[in-house]
């Protein structure tokens, strides 16, 4: 977690969850940036919407005077914004980790990671940049989570499981054992996955089957 003040990009329910985490960790929030002009100069709770990402007076603070977290809900837009920040500001987004999360090896976390309330990250599990780990998720020992993976609330990621880039795991899903979920694959909510899932494929059910 950062010791610098933070700007949050995006105004939406996910951004409010991120803001709550920073507040619980006593991190100062400068405000939100959102490119919807109707949101400029409004407030979300006590936090102001400063303007859009094109406003250099705020964009220019990132990396110099404050950290940033990208809380856009659309995965494509989120990735595009993160890449723009890293290229233009030469900085990676900070982590947003709920204080009730239990993390065995903090050194195995990367950058721009979101970890919700009550999540458990067990020993030797590794999370790459920009993962989103929902509330109550259990990532078991030795699991490998690659960049931009999203794991829905209440899911269990089995021991030594491997989730490739851009995977989406729906809420309350269970991945059993050391299986691999391929790049860009989707696991539907409530599924129990006992076999590998190929890249870009979708599975659902108990046991999960290809759709």
What's the short version?
It is built from 3 helices and 23 strands. It is elongated, with a radius of gyration of 17 Å.
List the helices and strands and how they pair.
Layout: E1 6-9, H1 13-24, E2 29-33, E3 43-44, E4 47-51, H2 56-59, E5 67-70, H3 75-88, E6 96-97, E7 102-103, E8 114-115, E9 120-121, E10 126-127, E11 132-133, E12 138-139, E13 144-145, E14 150-151, E15 156-157, E16 162-163, E17 168-169, E18 174-175, E19 180-181, E20 186-187, E21 192-193, E22 202-205, E23 208-210
Parallel strand pairs: 1-2, 1-5, 2-4, 6-8, 7-9, 8-11, 9-12, 10-13, 11-14, 12-15, 13-16, 14-17, 15-18, 16-19, 17-20, 18-21, 20-22
Antiparallel strand pairs: 3-4, 22-23
Number of helices: 3
Helix content: 10-25%
Strand order of the largest sheet: 6-8-11-14-17-20-22-23
What's the end-to-end separation, in Å? 39 Å
Q: Structural class, judged by helices and strands?
A: alpha/beta
* Count of β-strands: 23
Main beta sheet strand tally, sense and closure: 8 strands, mixed
Question: Which spans of ≥5 residues are poorly predicted at pLDDT below 50?
Answer: none
- Mean pLDDT, nearest integer? 94
Radius of gyration: 17 Å
H and E order: EHEEEHEHEEEEEEEEEEEEEEEEEE
Strand content: 25-35%
**Given the C-alpha coordinates, what overall shape results?**
elongated
Oligomer: single chain
Keywords: Acyltransferase, Repeat, Transferase
Domain PglD N-terminal: 6-84
Organism: Aquirufa aurantiipilula
Pfam families: Hexapep, Hexapep_2, PglD_N
């Amino acid at each position: 977690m950062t010791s610098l003040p933070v700007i949050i990009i995006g105004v939406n329910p996910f951004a409010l969850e991120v803001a709550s985490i920073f507040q619980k960790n006593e991190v100062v929030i400068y405000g939100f940036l959102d490119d919807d002009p109707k949101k400029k100069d409004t407030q979300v709770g006590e936090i102001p919407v400063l303007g859009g990402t094109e406003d250099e007076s705020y964009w220019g603070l990132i990396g110099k005077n404050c950290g940033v977290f990208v809380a856009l809900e659309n995965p494509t837009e989120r990735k595009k914004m993160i890449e723009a920040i890293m290229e233009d500001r030469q900085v990676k987004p900070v982590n947003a980790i709920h204080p009730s999360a239990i993390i065995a090896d903090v050194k195995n976390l990367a950058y721009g990671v979101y970890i919700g309330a009550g999540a458990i990250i067990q020993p030797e599990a590794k999370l790459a940049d920009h993962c989103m780990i929902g509330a109550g998720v259990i990532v078991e020992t030795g699991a490998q989570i690659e960049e931009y993976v999203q794991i829905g609330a209440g899911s269990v990621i089995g021991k030594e499981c491997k989730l490739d880039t851009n995977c989406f795991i729906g809420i309350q899903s269970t991945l059993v054992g050391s299986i691999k979920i391929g790049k860009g694959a989707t696991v539907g909510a409530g599924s129990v996955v006992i076999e590998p899932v190929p890249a870009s494929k979708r599975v659902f059910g108990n046991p999960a089957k290809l759709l």
